[in-house]
Amino acid sequence: MLKQVIVLAILGVSGAAQAAMDLPFDNFSGPLSNKIKLEYSGFTEPVEPMNFNSINGTVPVWSRDKDILTVSVKGSHLSVPKGINIPGSTLIEVPESLSSLEGGIQYKRSLEGERIIGGGVTYGSASDSLFSTKESIAISANLVYSFPSEKNDRWIWALFYSNNNPVFAGLPVPSVAYFFKRDTVMGAVGLPFIFLRWTPSAEPWAFTLFDLATIVKAEVSYGPPVSQYMMGFDWNQNTWLRHDVKDTDNKLYFDEKRVFVGSRFLLAKFVFTELQVGQAFDRSFYEAQGIGRKETGTAFIPASWYANWNFKVQF
After folding, report:
1. What is the CATH number of domain 8-314?
2. Given 74, 107, 177, 208, which residue has the most CB atoms within 10 angstroms?
3. pTM (predicted TM-score)
4. Stronger pLDDT, 11 or 315, i.e. the higher one
């Protein structure tokens, strides 16, 4: 799944924005970092019991002055109420359990002139039955090149491929972005996405916008990074590869929008947490080959209140 977009990891955007591309692009807008990063996220709702849990980990296994090699592990699980059926030429019953598990490796090298080059691959499965068939296998690969422009600005060029991607499934995706940072504005503007964060100098407010086709995040936050209150909107998709699907180009989509309020704060020296409550709405399951290419009807899920929590450790 598209789980990180250029430089968004270092810009501090989580949730839908990080869910946009499966590209570990952190540190491509600055010096290399060899920190260990662990993250856990959970989601639950009281009425229609859908529960989601995920865990991500990134560990540097080798580094020297100009090089760093990291390995990563990601896993998630979504529990779905029984009896959800997608209409179509044949009725498709949505599995009650949908999971993903993958491992990856990423290499980065710092070149002369503050340039950075890197690449990586991931291998795993995102399905109702992990690794049971070749149709359930998910793979991705990326190449990235970054170089400075003006002070605090960089160009980032990339090429990405994934066979399980909510936006550009099965297609090599070239990308170019211009990362910039000013006193009150920072962002990355390019193809196929835009990210902007505006922090007015008079008050500790921050306004964040991210858009990648049908993946959207908008947020207003108040307070310093170590103690913030926020409200916002998320529109996101997740995809899986059913183990018994007849057309392997078809992905099982879960599309959802959320409005929320919450807070994020430093829980301990290396532990950062985020809590949200809100309503999930306009939710549906369907099968498609990509954006606007539905192969079935749509199974709608009732709107529901929800709670979400996120813990991050970095050292």
Report:
1. 2.40.160
2. 177
3. 0.85
4. 315
Q: What does the alpha-carbon distance between residue 68 and residue 77 come to, in Å, rounded to a whole number?
A: 30
Helix (DSSP H) and strand (DSSP E) numbers for the chain: 1, 19
pLDDT tens, residue by residue, 117-152: 999 999 999 999 999 988 899 999 999 999 998 877
Instruction: Output b/e per residue, 155-183; b: 16+ Cβ within 10 A.
Output: ebbbebbbbbbbbbbeeebebebebbbee
User: Count of alpha carbons within 13 Å of 44, Cβ hemisphere only?
Assistant: 4
- Residue 76 and residue 99 in contact, taking contact as beta carbons nearer than 8 Å: yes
Residue type, 313: V
Give just the sign of the alpha carbon dihedral 275, 80, 98, 21: negative
Residue 29 is predicted with a pLDDT of 54
DSSP-assigned beta bridge partners for residue 162: 140
Supply 227's token pair. 């103690």
Q: Average pLDDT, whole number, for the chain?
A: 85
**One-letter-per-residue 3-state SS of 114-176:** HEEEEEEEEEEEEECCCCCCHHHEEEEEEEEEEEECCCCCEEEEEEEEECCCCCCCCCCEEEE
Collapse the DSSP code of 18 into the 3-class scheme (helix H, G, I; strand E, B; otherwise coil) and give the result: helix
Contacts of 184 (CB under 8 A, 6+ apart): 198, 199, 200, 201
State the number of CA atoms in the 13 A half-sphere of 261 facing the CB.
1
Q: At 294, which amino acid appears?
A: K
What is the phi/psi pair of residue 135, to 5°? -70, -20
Q: Residue 95 has what DSSP assignment? A: P
Q: Are 123 and 102 in contact (CB under 8 A)?
A: yes
Both tokens of residue 304? 């529901």
Here the contacts of 188-194 (C-beta below 8 Å, separation 24 or greater) are: 188/5, 188/6, 188/7, 188/8, 188/11, 188/29, 188/156, 190/6, 190/156, 192/167, 192/168, 193/5, 193/6, 193/20
